[in-house]
Each structure stands twice: as C-alpha cells, then as structure tokens.
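batch job 7 of whatever, protein = LacI family DNA-binding transcriptional regulator
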Amino acid sequence: MPITLQDVALRAGVSKSAVSRTFTPGASVSAKTRAKVEAAAKELGYMPNVLASSLTTGRTALIGLISNNFTNPYFLEIFDLFTRALQKAELRPLLINLSAEEDASRSLSMLRQYNVDGVIVASSTLPPDFAKVFHDAGIPVVHAFGWSSEAPQTGRVSIDNTEAGHLAAVTLIERGYRQVGFLGGPQNAATTADRLRGFQTELLTHGLAPEVEFATAYSYEAGRVAMTRALDSVPEVEAWFCGDDVIAIGAMDAATALGRSIPSDIGFIGLNDMNMAGWDRIALTTIRQPAQQIVATSVDLIRQGIADPATEPQMVLLPCTLIDRKTLRAKP
C-alpha cells in the first residue's frame, strides 16, 4: 500500500495539517515540527503528491514552454537548457508544439486545461498575439529568443537583433567585402526585420546596400533552396549574412554543390552559434546568442511573475558576440 500523509502524521506524532504544511512551499511550520515530519517521511519512504498539493495551494508549478521551431536543431538545444533550468527551479516544463497552430485562443484553452502557472514563448516566429492572449488571461508570460514591439505587455529576453545585424555588417566590411547579401528567416518574423535593419543601416554608412533574400523557414532545406535561387539571380554577391545558423549551413551546401569554394569564392556568417556550427566540417563564423543567459533570465522573470502578478513586465536585451571560424576570408 502506498504511504499516505496520515501514516507520516502518526509516525511523527503531529497532525495531518502539519505534514501538509511541511511539504507546502512558503507554509508556516516550526523547525521542530518540520524535523519530525521529514524524519518520519524518510523512514517511511513517503513522497508528497504534487498533484494533490496543487489542489490545496492553487499552484501546479507547471510552466507552458511553447514554440513552433521544432525542426530547427538550435531550438532542441534551447529546450534542453529550458527544461534543466526549470526543473532546477522546482518548476515543471510542459512542452507544447504549436507548429501547426494559428489560433492563439485555442492554445490558451489547451494551457488552461493544465492550469499552468506561467508561459514561456520560445520562438521568433509565433505572432505576438499569442503572448498577448496568455498575458490578458492573467498568466505570467515571458517571450524568449524573439520579441515584437507589438506585444509590450509581456516580459522579453533576447539579444539586440538590430545590433546583431550591425555587427555582421561591420565584420563583412572589415574583411573587405563590398558586394554582400542578407539571407533572412521568414519575412514576417520580427527578429528577421530587426537583423536586416541593423545590417542595412551600417552598410549604408559605407555607401553599400545588400541584396536581400528570405528563407521560408528556419531550416536547412529552406536555406539551401533560398541560396540556390540567390546564386542564380545575384551570383556576384561575395558574402552572405544568414539570420540563422541552420539556414547558413543549408546555404553553404547549396554554394558548394554549385562549385563555389568557401571562403575563397564566397563567404558566410550565421547567427546563434548552435553546437553544429562548431563542427570541423562546418566551422561556421557566426554571431553568438548567449543562450544559457537568455534561458536563466527568462526563468527568473517567470518566477517573479508567478510570485507577484503585479510585477511590471521587463525587457532584457543581452549582448551578442562574433565567433570567428573558417567561412569568411581573413582581414586584409
């Protein structure tokens, strides 16, 4: 028979409510009573039922971790970081795949069925009304790795994507490139627009303007297809800033298949610094997002939002850095 709360209370010589308070975070219980209860629980092998305790506290510690980027290997790394960080914070991730979802209200209904305490949107392509709908329902929300000024009510943690575009432009100019291109992700993604804006603005100060192409998704295949098209229409471009590493890897393979040598014939710079970018065969020069810091900050903000729903949403922009490998020529 499973060990019950009553069994622990009898062994410890305390009331059932004292046992319940011992295993309820933030509940008042004396140090003496806590020691008795914990000792009795250890002797009996009792583990509190978190689902049952949620009925008392009104808190499930469930955090909806939602995205639509499951085909992008970088986001598998992100989900690994998030699940570890949430579990370390004694929160339980509920992973939701919204790849085929277009109705924010239906997504809200699904999350409400599980009575989540908060939501982390880990995507740059979900429309901003997703975060807004969750926020308007009284659920603390943090949007990580992408944000839009159209959804100012939610917490946001990201790099400064405009600055990332600026850094890419500066890097290409320093390497002596003059005919350059931008291969972004989906055109409707706010991050794509910001990266392109920063890239164009810096190039303009040098009297340059990039060729612009967009991939249909943040995926290898979309990058390969888009670059195949670009190399046919604008073969004179010497280097491309790709707004995502996996798009860049697809683009590099397209260029190689068409007989271009990297970096002597054509250069590439990506964004994210996913693990694959550092593989010897790829060795992609890229702009690193501090993924671990973005995840840790997002978890801190969601904990604050749960503890104090009146907390004003914060916007946290973190710095990005250049990781120099082998897909751009050296400085002249």
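notes: The longest helix spans residues 291-307.
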